[in-house]
Amino acid sequence: MSKRGKLIVFSAPSGSGKTTIVRHLLSKEDLNLEFSISAASREPRGEEATGKDYYFMSTKEFKQHIKNDDFLEWEEVYRDNFYGTLKSEVDRIWAKGKNVIFDIDVVGGLRIKHKFPEETLAVFVKPPSVDELKRRLKERSTESEDKINMRIAKASVELATAPQFDTIIKNYDLDTAKEEAYRLVKDYVTK
Predict the structure, then answer these.
(1) What Å distances lie between residue 38 and 30, 67, 88, 90, 178, CA to CA?
(2) Residues facing residue 167 across a β-bridge
């Protein structure tokens, strides 16, 4: 792997606001961040594009990458629905002299923290409540009721992992959460 920069992991249940917070941080040039694009074995949703939002691949391709040990971390999030971080993606960003920021599920986030404990700041974004999470997911209108219910069931398990992260940001007010995230990351990348 290339010269190591810092790794900043943002994890949370779907609908917690982590993607919005990560996008906000990426807009701050002083943080010297670049987004780690995850690999996913699912079809793009809405405006998502391969190489921008995810590296979309078939389940078969994903499993071949697992066999080749190409992933820093990976997870079968739902049956035959894989997500992971390619080692080459982190190398690509570090080679540019940048810090890597992840928008990643809790299992993947904790795996990165365990592999790189000295280089990683792991942040858990906590939603106001499970009911609010459900409301946000329904508002997105990108998934079926069944898929939303699966995400809500998973959220309860994910919320229980929050204490394993370095810090928790409570996203009750998005502007406040964004500002808190900025201060945290700024302190981390400048030390």
Answers:
(1) 24, 17, 11, 10, 22
(2) 123
Tokens standing for residue 82? 């894989």
| pLDDT tens figures, 149-182 | 888 888 888 999 999 999 999 999 999 999 999 9
Mean pLDDT of the chain: 91
What CA–CA distance (Å, rounded) separates 66 from 64? 5
- Cα four-point dihedral sign 174, 97, 8, 50: positive
> pTM, whole model, 2 decimals?
0.86
- C-alpha separations of 12 from 2, 22, 124, 158 in Å: 28, 12, 6, 7
Looking at the DSSP bridge assignments, the partners of residue 172 are: none
Pairing label, strands 120-126, 167-170: parallel
